[in-house]
Here is the input.
Amino acid sequence: MRGDLVRKLAIRCLSAGLAVLSFLTLALTSAELVGLALAVAAAASVWAERRINPRSDLVAEPVLLIAGVLVGYARLVPEARWTLVVTGAALLGLTLAERPLRDAAQWEVRSANLGVRSSPLLVAGRLGPAVLLLLVALAASAALTLPAWPALVLTVLVGAGCAVGAIAPIALRRLRPSAGQSPVTQALRRHQPEFLLYFSAPPGSEYQVMMWLPYLERIGRPFMVLLREPNFLAPVSAATSAPVVVCPTPRSIDEAMVPSLRVAFYVNHGAKNSHSIRFAHLTHIQLHHGDSDKAPSANPVSAIFDKIFVAGQAAIDRYARNGVVIPREKFAIVGRPQVESIAVTREPIRNRAEKVVLYTPTWTGHHADVDYCSLPVGETLIRRLLDRGTTVILRAHPYTSQNPASARQLARLEQVLAEDRAATGRQHVFGADAARKMTLVECVNRSHALVSDVSAVISDYLYSGKPYAVTDRVGEGERFVQSFPLAGSGYVLRSDMSNMDDVLDQLLDTDPLEENRWQTRTRYLGDFPAQTYADGFLDEARRHLDAGTGAPTVPAPRPAPVS
Here is the structure.
């Protein structure tokens, strides 16, 4: 992160410095060729800055370059002054129009895996580089003392392309919306998706979608992914062959609601879900992106969905335990298909000479009442595990980096593991090796025991039958198991870690709760045959799709809520 900031500051200083130096040289000295060379270098620097920092607002530098190059050109080719005035005005107009055009284009629907591209987005993304190329061409023409009219023609052509490809389409869509005739809508009608996966979340949350895509594809029906934030388009579209559409506004969602759709799936309780739930002709199904005893897993907002797919009876009981009243018929127990590849074992951990422990600290949450993160005491835990000769796999929550204190604590744990690996040769796994090169399932299968905070990882690990420990970071003591029943089949580490040695003895040796875990496993993850475990979800999803067959009509949606 620090290196990235230094790189952005360096290119910022270089771009601004070269632009100012070029202008001063061309405006105040007679060294026109030197000034033109500096202008070309400044244009290259501005282009590089756009690549390094796409969000940078670069207006002053191109304006300075335009002014400087025109002054130098007029000195070298005096008879071209009036042509240069028109060329300069056109270039200035393009430069000033770029940012508003980019902002307007951000509200356009974009797609991937659909064969449709938004011309306003394409034009807005290329207008800045095009202006820089025009500047370079203008500087080269000045240095060669060529006539100025070819540069004027090129500038006018770029302006005309900008008007036809971006300004006109954006204006027409604002003045005369025609969702049913848009290229995206027409392509989706040809694709005829039967269901969609709707997703809106903060940056870094794409894992919530990734875990479900393979199983949505296994349903065997055409579908689409509807995103609300454009930053997810690249990673999500790379993970599936299904069409992926970004609808940045509630009204733009209308373009994606083609008549063939029957079901909408959701993986979280994002506020923007309401923009899709307003379409009453769809069956809206909440999948969740994990099953845990955390408070968000019993969110009252779940009641707005037509169906709630849960892994097991424990999820239904969780809502009732938290005072959330939802009719039983809204729930469907489908298991958690993501665990189907987890290896199940009944071999006692005490029989293993070398033990591998998976440690998965969660994040701090948005609010203090859902902060279950054990990173503040993580170093004590890691060192005790190392003292017992274990190999550690450290896999932190994807949101950990959002909290600077958590990021520093995680970096310290990785340093401790790196030092121990160098000293003992034990092959600890952490950092990118654990978070990106290995899936969670691979981490589970490679380990023999788990230490985790209150999180969905415990539910997934429960499927393996292997022992786990849970950190009581909320300090509830005896009430902890009542609030988080899944901890009752694991070994609870007190908030002050005072019972750590006893817990590690049970976790890594005696394991007195082995049989209790198998009973809990059915209650949390359903009772489905291991060979066809994912069929619980696939069959239930197909049933709802088949229930929606009939005349394909799209009723007028309820009014979109204010975002």
